[in-house]
């Protein structure tokens, strides 16, 4: 029963297609429990295990270095914030007041922003420092 593990966003369309192609009984109804299949529901159910350290991000290993693994959520935050100029400038302003530790410096170095070459790189570096601080 593929519908039992399908994200709720796609269940209705999949059910209609299955019924139209006689793959499932026309009277079949989705079970209420299946309607809870969503990314947010799954994340909330797994969160306690993640917080307890029982659910690593890469349980089967990764080609990412420790620095790169730390940068992934930080860069995702920067991507979200940078949708507006005001957002990135606010984060950069926080970066002005940030005292980076060695791990932060290593991340900045990995992105080749130790010595920014342009104003855009300076702003990015400051926003990165603020986002790194928030990730600690």
Explain the overall architecture:
With 136 residues, the protein is mostly helical. It folds into two domains: 50 residues, no CATH class; 70 residues, no CATH class. Helices cover 59% and strands 0% of the residues. Helix 3 packs across helix 5, helix 3 packs across helix 6 and helix 4 crosses helix 6. The chain is elongated and about 65 Å long.
Low-confidence stretches: none
The number of helical runs is: 6
**Oligomer description:** single chain
Q: Which secondary-structure class do the elements indicate?
A: mainly alpha
Distance between the termini: 42 Å
> What integer is the average pLDDT?
95
Question: Beta-sheet strand percentage?
Answer: under 5%
Shape: elongated
Number of extended strands: 0
Main β-sheet description: none
Q: Summarize the amount of helix as a percent range.
A: 55-70%
Q: How many discrete domains?
A: 2
